[in-house]
Amino acid sequence: MPTLGIAGTGLIGGSVGIGMRRRGWKVVGWDPEEARLEDAANVGATDETATSLSDLYETDLVLLAGPLGGIIETIPALPDTLVVTDVAGLKAPVADAAAHLKCFIPGHPMAGREFSGPTGASGSMFRGANWILCTDGRDGDAVSMVEDMIESLGANPLYMTAAAHDQAVGAVSHLPQLVAATLVDMIENDTVTELAAGGFRDVTRIAQSEPRWWTDILMSNAEVLVPIIDDIRSRFETLKDAMEEGDSVFIETFLGRARQSRMKLAAPVDSVRMVIEDRPGEFAKVGAALAESGVDLRDLQLRHATDGGGGVLTLSVRKGEAEALTDALTEHDFRIIP
Q: Fewest beta carbons within 10 Å, which of 124, 199, 253, 275?
């Protein structure tokens, strides 16, 4: 039985542990916070707990799933021949620190949640997600072992240099984190908060993420982020000028271009919107309808009513399957929204 050592049994480490245990691996966990170790064991993320990080060096593969600074501090003590990968959201500092370790494969799963800790872990978190690997100059057998783990979790290995990765995530991950936090920081009174509906919640969801982790990442990627912040500030200035000048054509063109670009990012799915009431058994009925229709559920989103009860549930299914799902939901007396 292959063994996986996980250093850092939080959300990502816990999710990897659950997934790999399902696939027959023995998972040994270590975390400097004993409570996280206990939670990881309780959710089924580990088979055993290690008393020290060095205990993991006896496993076949080690995953470093702590914060960026902790990962970098760990690297000097790693054995040369140990196969190791990590999940840090920034790759250049890790790749540089581990340049002498040919069996260290820098990695970054493009998946996660806004909440931290193993209690939110899921073995299916990485299904369909891209998992970045920086393999330049690394040992081929070590790369293959890490690739096998990634594919076992249902993710797709994607190969980039560390510098290209850090530039890309600066725009698509790190800047959105700052934007979400800034928007929430602007809300200073209860009246405005009460008006915040689904759109605001969607845009600012990631503002709930762990501050300590993100501070580490953002400050370490400042060289990339500062020019991006300057760029978006310049774009807002252009929009501001257009609004002050009454240039509605510019604004409409801008919004239309953004809409088209965003639509290209959307997965090829059909969506069914329905009203869901605030009463026991509603989601059980949804589950029954999904089972009866035999559709492939790709995503779901619940927009709560303003009073917190019920709301609108959007179910995204494979192209061509919306009619079958609509029929099944109607049979269960749900109201479909055109």
A: 199
CA-wise closest residue to 232 among 178, 165, 163: 178
Residue 177 is part of which domain span? 165-264
The β-bridge partners of 84 are 62, 104
- pLDDT at position 199 is 77
DSSP letter string over 77-96?
A: GS-TT--EEE--S--HHHHH
| Run of H or E including 255 | helix 248-265
Amino acid at 304: H
pTM: 0.78
Kindly state whether residues 176 and 42 are assigned to the same domain. no
Is 70 exceeded by the pLDDT of residue 20?
A: yes
- From 141, 160, 179, the end of a domain falls on 160
Cα→Cα distances 158→22, 85, 132, 153, 245, Å:
23, 14, 5, 14, 45
C-alpha distances in angstroms, 114 versus 34, 206, 207, 208, 211?
Answer: 22, 5, 7, 6, 11
Tell me which residue has tokens 């996980």: 6
Q: Report the CATH number that the domain containing residue 230 is assigned in CATH.
A: 1.10.3660.10
Same structural domain, 252 and 274: no
**What is the pLDDT of the chain when averaged over all its residues?**
91
